[in-house]
Amino acid sequence: MPYQSLHAETIPFRGHGGFQSEAYYARPLTSERVPGVVVIHHMPGWDEWTTEVVRKFAHHGYAAIAPHLFARFGPGDPDDVTARARAAGGAYDAEVMGDVAACMAYLRAQREASGKIGVIGFCSGGRHTYLAACTVPGVDAAVDCWGGRVIVDDPKQFSPQRAVAPIVHTAKLACPLLGIFGNDDKNPNPDQVNRTEQELKKHGKAYEFHRYDGAGHSFFDYGRPAYRPEQAADAWQKVFAFFARNLAASAERPAAA
Amino acid sequence: MCSYIVEKASLTGSAKGRGWMKIDTAHVYYDHPFHAPLDHALGIDFVNAANGGRERVAVELSAESARELVRAILAALESGEREHATADAAAQATAA
Q1: Architecture of the CATH domain A6-246
Q2: What distance in Å separates residue B33's CA from the closest CA in chain A?
Q3: Are B51 and B74 within one domain?
Q4: Which of B37, B54, B58 has the CB atom closest to A223's CB atom?
Q5: Closest chain B residue to the Cα of A75, Cα to Cα
Q6: Which of A51, A85, A208, B61 has its CA 20 to 30 A from that of A251?
Q7: In this structure, are B29 and B68 located in the same domain?
Q8: Pairing between strand A63-67 and A113-122?
Q9: pLDDT tens digits along B30-53
């Protein structure tokens, strides 16, 4: 059921290490208890598209929050902050995981919270989502949208900020995982997606992967040539069906493998 | 593709965005742009790193136009330096 009336705002929150950060938060105006979703932004940063995604989840009946993962790089317009973050090598995984955990706590503390929390991320945020699903306690469902470097084939891609490939944590995955991928993507490429799936199978994890022909990286992004309207519409439906199923008040977490 | 790969060039010069500022570094990368309606763009951020690097003058270019810019920069340098060298030689000849 869509919710036409929303409340949306930028809120302060204490992120990893007590850092005073900010996040974009939106919720439907309803007296019902609603599940929460943490939206992890892509490499271009805490941009307008990210806030649109947060409001989209609110429209669909979720309290959603997107932490500004580059806030540690100082104040300013999000694009300028992203430029600083990029030049410095990006955010540390530990900071991102801490910020995600803090946002989950924020969502659960709200009066309208049902207690169920999903995490979704795009691009680099897809990688962060995989990592959060495996290492942050309390995630009830996770959606990785074309997260690159879940598997790292070139050791040069490791950095102090991203020192581990999330795939190594797969055994610890404690919630259902939905993966959305374009078959023309090069990061992750189809072979890496297949190997990720093999690892999930090996550990007996609950997952579903959807691979789209004629689509590459970031095919939800309507402002770029990569946008694929038909594939995006289908994938969004799969995202909402997955969250509806796994974030319902009655949904049970899968038994540990 | 979220590469985080940034080439850094030391510069001497100035750039104008909201106003003129001294710059000492260019951050050059090929990744998702923020504004240009492209899947990937060659980005250049001109900053004054010695002054904290907070302000920047930025461009996001298609790969093809970035290569055209490189060609134009090299051509302008070559022709400009040739003209100045000619002018300098003429001035020295006149002075002699």
Answers
A1: 3-Layer(aba) Sandwich (3.40)
A2: 7
A3: no
A4: B37
A5: B54
A6: A51
A7: no
A8: unpaired
A9: 999 999 999 999 999 999 999 998
Give per-residue pLDDT as tens, A72-121: 999 999 999 999 999 999 999 999 999 999 999 999 999 999 999 999 99
CA gap A46, A83 in Å, rounded: 12
> Number of A:B CB contacts under 8 A?
68
Instruction: Please check the confidence at residue A138 and state whether its pLDDT lies above 50.
Output: yes
Q: Distance from A79 to chain B by nearest Cα, in Å?
A: 6
Q: Which residue of B has its CA nearest to A127?
A: B2
Please check whether residues B1 and B34 belong to one and the same domain. Answer: yes
Q: Are B48 and B89 part of one and the same domain?
A: no
Q: Determine the distance in angstroms separating the CA of B65 from the nearest CA of chain A, rounded to an integer.
A: 17
Domain coordinates in residue numbering, chain A: 6-246
What's the domain range around B24?
1-61
Q: Are B74 and B91 in a shared domain?
A: yes
Q: What is the domain count for chain B?
A: 2
The candidate with the shortest Cα–Cα distance to A152, out of A180, A177, A130, A174, is A130
Q: Assess contact for A156 and A133: CB atoms under 8 A.
A: no
Across the interface, do A123 and B32 touch by the CB < 8 Å criterion? yes
- Single-letter residue type at A111: R
Q: Which residue has the tokens 């985080």?
A: B4
pTM, 2 dp:
0.91
Judge contact between A130 and A236, C-beta under 8 A: no
Please check whether residues B78 and B32 belong to one and the same domain. no
Question: Is the CA virtual torsion A109, A111, A114, A117 positive or negative?
Answer: negative
Over residues A8-17, the mean pLDDT reads 97
Q: Are B40 and B67 found together in one domain?
A: no
- Interface residue A123 vs chain B (CB under 8 A): yes
Interchain contact A201–B (C-beta under 8 A): no
Same domain? B56 vs B10: yes
Nearest to B35 among A76, A79, A218 (CB): A79
d(CA A146, CA A134): 17
